[in-house]
């Protein structure tokens, strides 16, 4: 499966991939303080396990940072 994540094309071996599975692969160490949007729609964290991705999805992963 080919996915566009944060404007970069990446290849994955899975035929079906949920948002949570993608995050487990991409950022396993930091999953607090992030938001995910698919095709400009923010997906609630409660739906990450059930929302399946397709190759036409434009995925944006945003991580909150501290600073001042």
TrEMBL record:
Gene3D superfamilies: 3.10.20.30
Listed NCBIfam families: thiS
Name of the featured protein: Sulfur carrier protein ThiS
Gene that encodes the chain: thiS
């Amino acid at each position: 499966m080919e996915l566009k994540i944060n404007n970069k094309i990446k290849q994955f071996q899975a035929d079906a991939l949920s948002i949570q599975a993608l995050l487990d692969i991409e950022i396993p160490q930091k999953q607090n303080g992030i938001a995910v949007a698919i095709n400009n729609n923010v997906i609630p964290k409660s739906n990450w396990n059930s929302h399946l991705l397709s190759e036409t999805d434009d995925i944006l992963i945003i991580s909150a940072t501290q600073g001042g």
